[in-house]
Amino acid sequence: MEDVHDNERLIFKQVYFLKRHTDKAAAVHLASLMPIDFNMTFMPYFMSIGHEGISNHNLVNKIMVTKQGVSKTVKELERLDLTYTRKSETDARSIMIFLTAKGKQLYDTIYQMANNMTAEYIKLIGAKKYEEFIDTLIKISKWHEEQEKLL
Protein backbone atom coordinates (compact mmCIF):
# COMPACT_ATOMS: atom_id res chain seq x y z
CA MET A 1 0.00 0.00 0.00
CA GLU A 2 1.18 3.49 -0.79
CA ASP A 3 2.28 5.84 1.96
CA VAL A 4 -0.81 7.95 2.73
CA HIS A 5 1.52 10.77 3.73
CA ASP A 6 3.01 11.03 0.23
CA ASN A 7 1.38 14.32 -0.78
CA GLU A 8 1.97 13.70 -4.48
CA ARG A 9 -0.21 10.59 -4.35
CA LEU A 10 -3.17 12.08 -2.48
CA ILE A 11 -6.22 11.33 -4.60
CA PHE A 12 -7.94 14.59 -3.65
CA LYS A 13 -4.96 16.59 -4.85
CA GLN A 14 -4.57 14.67 -8.11
CA VAL A 15 -8.29 14.75 -8.97
CA TYR A 16 -8.30 18.49 -8.28
CA PHE A 17 -5.26 19.07 -10.51
CA LEU A 18 -6.67 16.90 -13.29
CA LYS A 19 -9.94 18.86 -13.22
CA ARG A 20 -8.06 22.17 -13.27
CA HIS A 21 -5.94 21.05 -16.22
CA THR A 22 -8.89 19.73 -18.23
CA ASP A 23 -10.96 22.85 -17.49
CA LYS A 24 -8.08 25.05 -18.59
CA ALA A 25 -7.54 23.02 -21.78
CA ALA A 26 -11.24 23.28 -22.60
CA ALA A 27 -11.28 27.03 -21.93
CA VAL A 28 -8.24 27.57 -24.17
CA HIS A 29 -9.45 25.34 -27.02
CA LEU A 30 -13.02 26.58 -26.91
CA ALA A 31 -12.47 30.27 -26.15
CA SER A 32 -13.62 31.40 -29.58
CA LEU A 33 -16.82 29.32 -29.41
CA MET A 34 -17.86 29.69 -25.78
CA PRO A 35 -19.70 32.76 -24.60
CA ILE A 36 -17.46 34.89 -22.38
CA ASP A 37 -19.60 34.23 -19.33
CA PHE A 38 -19.80 30.45 -19.84
CA ASN A 39 -18.62 29.10 -16.50
CA MET A 40 -16.80 25.76 -16.57
CA THR A 41 -19.09 24.62 -13.74
CA PHE A 42 -21.85 24.57 -16.39
CA MET A 43 -20.02 21.85 -18.34
CA PRO A 44 -21.48 18.71 -16.67
CA TYR A 45 -25.00 20.13 -16.99
CA PHE A 46 -24.48 21.21 -20.59
CA MET A 47 -22.88 17.97 -21.74
CA SER A 48 -25.58 15.89 -20.00
CA ILE A 49 -28.30 17.54 -22.09
CA GLY A 50 -26.91 16.18 -25.35
CA HIS A 51 -28.58 16.27 -28.74
CA GLU A 52 -31.67 14.39 -27.50
CA GLY A 53 -32.41 16.68 -24.59
CA ILE A 54 -33.15 15.65 -21.01
CA SER A 55 -35.87 16.23 -18.43
CA ASN A 56 -35.10 18.47 -15.49
CA HIS A 57 -35.76 15.50 -13.19
CA ASN A 58 -33.27 13.27 -15.03
CA LEU A 59 -30.67 16.05 -15.05
CA VAL A 60 -31.05 16.47 -11.27
CA ASN A 61 -30.41 12.74 -10.83
CA LYS A 62 -27.54 12.63 -13.33
CA ILE A 63 -25.67 15.64 -11.93
CA MET A 64 -26.61 14.84 -8.30
CA VAL A 65 -27.56 18.39 -7.34
CA THR A 66 -30.77 20.02 -6.18
CA LYS A 67 -33.62 20.94 -8.50
CA GLN A 68 -32.90 24.60 -7.67
CA GLY A 69 -29.25 24.14 -8.70
CA VAL A 70 -30.26 22.65 -12.04
CA SER A 71 -32.87 25.37 -12.58
CA LYS A 72 -30.36 28.15 -11.93
CA THR A 73 -27.75 26.69 -14.30
CA VAL A 74 -30.29 25.94 -17.03
CA LYS A 75 -31.51 29.56 -16.83
CA GLU A 76 -27.90 30.71 -17.31
CA LEU A 77 -27.50 28.38 -20.30
CA GLU A 78 -30.76 29.75 -21.74
CA ARG A 79 -29.51 33.30 -21.24
CA LEU A 80 -26.39 32.34 -23.22
CA ASP A 81 -28.65 30.99 -26.02
CA LEU A 82 -27.26 27.46 -25.59
CA THR A 83 -30.44 25.78 -24.35
CA TYR A 84 -34.21 26.17 -24.35
CA THR A 85 -36.92 24.50 -22.30
CA ARG A 86 -40.47 23.37 -22.85
CA LYS A 87 -43.06 21.33 -21.00
CA SER A 88 -42.77 17.59 -21.40
CA GLU A 89 -45.31 16.12 -23.79
CA THR A 90 -45.62 12.99 -21.62
CA ASP A 91 -45.49 14.48 -18.09
CA ALA A 92 -47.02 17.90 -17.43
CA ARG A 93 -45.00 18.25 -14.21
CA SER A 94 -41.70 17.89 -16.04
CA ILE A 95 -39.68 20.35 -18.09
CA MET A 96 -37.57 19.17 -21.02
CA ILE A 97 -34.24 20.87 -21.70
CA PHE A 98 -32.80 21.00 -25.22
CA LEU A 99 -29.73 22.47 -26.89
CA THR A 100 -30.23 25.30 -29.37
CA ALA A 101 -28.41 25.17 -32.74
CA LYS A 102 -25.62 27.21 -31.13
CA GLY A 103 -25.62 24.81 -28.18
CA LYS A 104 -25.40 21.77 -30.48
CA GLN A 105 -22.43 23.29 -32.28
CA LEU A 106 -20.64 23.91 -28.98
CA TYR A 107 -21.57 20.42 -27.73
CA ASP A 108 -20.10 18.79 -30.85
CA THR A 109 -16.91 20.85 -30.56
CA ILE A 110 -16.50 19.96 -26.88
CA TYR A 111 -17.13 16.30 -27.67
CA GLN A 112 -14.47 16.37 -30.40
CA MET A 113 -12.02 18.13 -28.09
CA ALA A 114 -12.63 15.44 -25.45
CA ASN A 115 -11.98 12.73 -28.04
CA ASN A 116 -8.73 14.45 -29.04
CA MET A 117 -7.69 14.73 -25.40
CA THR A 118 -8.51 11.05 -24.87
CA ALA A 119 -6.31 10.16 -27.86
CA GLU A 120 -3.45 12.14 -26.28
CA TYR A 121 -3.93 10.34 -22.95
CA ILE A 122 -3.88 6.99 -24.74
CA LYS A 123 -0.64 7.96 -26.47
CA LEU A 124 0.77 8.92 -23.08
CA ILE A 125 -0.17 5.83 -21.04
CA GLY A 126 -1.53 3.29 -23.53
CA ALA A 127 -5.07 2.17 -24.28
CA LYS A 128 -5.18 -0.55 -21.62
CA LYS A 129 -4.04 1.72 -18.79
CA TYR A 130 -6.39 4.46 -19.96
CA GLU A 131 -9.39 2.08 -19.94
CA GLU A 132 -8.35 0.80 -16.49
CA PHE A 133 -8.04 4.40 -15.27
CA ILE A 134 -11.55 5.30 -16.50
CA ASP A 135 -13.00 2.05 -15.14
CA THR A 136 -11.39 2.81 -11.77
CA LEU A 137 -12.81 6.35 -11.68
CA ILE A 138 -16.27 4.99 -12.50
CA LYS A 139 -15.97 2.32 -9.80
CA ILE A 140 -14.87 4.87 -7.19
CA SER A 141 -17.72 7.22 -8.18
CA LYS A 142 -20.29 4.43 -7.91
CA TRP A 143 -18.89 3.48 -4.50
CA HIS A 144 -19.40 7.08 -3.33
CA GLU A 145 -22.96 7.06 -4.72
CA GLU A 146 -23.69 3.89 -2.73
CA GLN A 147 -22.19 5.44 0.41
CA GLU A 148 -24.45 8.49 0.03
CA LYS A 149 -27.51 6.23 -0.14
CA LEU A 150 -26.56 4.86 3.28
CA LEU A 151 -26.65 8.29 4.90
The number of distinct helices, counting runs of at least 4 residues, comes to 6
Low-confidence stretches at least 5 residues in length (pLDDT < 50)?
none
> N-to-C terminal Cα separation, in Å?
28 Å
Helicity, as a percent range:
55-70%
Q: What's the β-strand tally?
A: 3
**Series of secondary-structure elements, N-terminal to C-terminal:** HHEHHEEHH
Mean of the pLDDT scores? 90
Q: Largest sheet at a glance?
A: 3 strands, antiparallel
What would you call the structural class? mainly alpha
Note the quaternary state here.
single chain
Shape: globular
Q: Strands of the largest sheet, in order across it?
A: 1-3-2
In words, what does this structure look like?
This protein is mainly alpha-helical. Helix 3 (56-63) packs across helix 4 (67-79). The protein has helices at residues 11-30, 43-49, 56-63, 67-79, 101-125, 127-150; strands at 54-55, 83-87, 95-99. A 3-stranded antiparallel beta sheet has the order 1-3-2. The chain is 64% helix and 8% strand. Strand 2 and strand 3 form a beta hairpin.
